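does this look right to u?? NAP version
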Amino acid sequence: MDSLKNNRKIKHLPIVIIGAGFGGIALAVKLQKAGIRDFTLLERASEVGGTWRDNTYPGCACDVASTLYSLSFAPNPHWSRTHGIQPEIFEYMKKVARDFDLYSYVRFNTELQKAHWDEQNDIWHITTNQGEFTCDVLTTATGPFGEPVIPKLKGADTFKGHSFHTFHWDHGYALTGKKVAIIGTGATSIQLIPEIQPQVETLKVFQRTPSHVLPRIDYATSAAKRSAFRFVPLFQRGIRSMWYAAYEGLVGLPQFVDTRFIALFERTAKYHLHRQIKDQPLRDKLTPDYRFGCKRPVFSSKYFPALQKSNVDLITEGIREIREHSIIDTQGNEHNVDVIIYATGFRVPHEIAEKLIGHDNQSLASLLENKPKSYLGTSFSGFPNLFMMLGPFSLAGNQSAIFTLEMQADYITKSIKTMRKKAFKNVEVKENVMNTFSREIEERAEKTTWVNGGCKSYYQHANGGNAGLWPNWSFMYRWKTRKFEENKFHVKHNATAEDV
Ligand code: NAP
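got this back:
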């Protein structure tokens, strides 16, 4: 019976996309181009932009070159630098949303609370803070870095100063002249430290594990080059292809062909450290004891110089407790601070999986925790008509995430087109297909530094295997997602076919 779908109180939205970041924008445009316009984006914030809207900490920028870290259908000749900075990327995303008239498709301030598959009616039933909806096809495009983590440190609730996570940067709080502690030394922290060091009275950097740091190759784009990008789009496309080939070859080779190539990166990072830091004890503290790439490498030419300024201390002892105005390290040293900045990363995999309930009341989180499974990082057995963007085993660790998102947007669009053309009411990947794909990925990833590089990171699941990266060339992912293979899915038919 169609009572739920036809229930006037509950609005039916044929295609729902959760999130209006790069993934949601890419999918929306691809659907439009395919002539599919009955989609709705549900966005928890009041603006598009995802992670580039939310992360506004000083120094926030992208490590992938802008010509490649942009949508292929929306080249931007105006990038001011080789690597885009957060305000510029955010502006670019808003412009793409305007240019493709996406704002009219977004319901802002609408946060998904729960979505469950309604077996009786073959639809998704969605609960949000703005009410309930139903939909035929549900796609999540929420990305992995939407839920910041603040570690539970002893005494943290007794701290009388100010504290916040980098994801919730407090622009109303001036750091000038303050005694600042920053916890964590990942990609965020390494961008942030050189920016705030000159303003603060003291900066205590609490490092648990040092990162492999490579020099950052970043230049202002000359006016002549920008003009060339504008008037000769093929030129910019050529540069984009060069960056693609560089990431694919340089970074892919050690991962997928021979891990001995990693030594090249390790030597470069070591050379960078030795060139910028002359003090041996400090060098020792900053020298990683795991293979390059096991944790996400970082890029900065300003981090090591900032660490050596007279107002900065690198503290490698752990944190024992936090008191009203200080942090006590495991050696018992007391560090007086006015503000604690948590650069402690995100919960990966993200919380959206807990909100998705498929067959037999099973939450997607139960499939993703411990040892994740997926088919192509987009489909899950037990979850009909659900597509996930950047789900487990889809993100190429060596390539622009936007490249992967576009491939997935193409794949999901083709899937929906096939569903409509062939009158498939629902499609659900076969369990054996998902298991075989996941096993192959897990086996292939065993050779990569992501799982055998001698560290602990979010690249690994609870049992130490590959948590979510695509361990192959990115063009192989394009090949795998070139068409919707219906023989890999359980298919339920509608009465009549619809045109698309
Ligand atoms: P992250 O890479 O997860 O780093 C978190 C840092 O906090 C690590 O140094 C971690 O130490 C430390 N930490 C966590 N819990 C701790 C605790 N209880 N005590 C002490 N230290 C603790 O997070 P992130 O730097 O925010 O970056 C997240 C991701 O966002 C990156 O991997 C990247 O993909 C993306 N990102 C990209 C860019 C860019 O393109 N430039 C910039 C920023 C972020 P351990 O290593 O010991 O766990």
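The chain has a mean pLDDT of 94. idk if thats expected tbh
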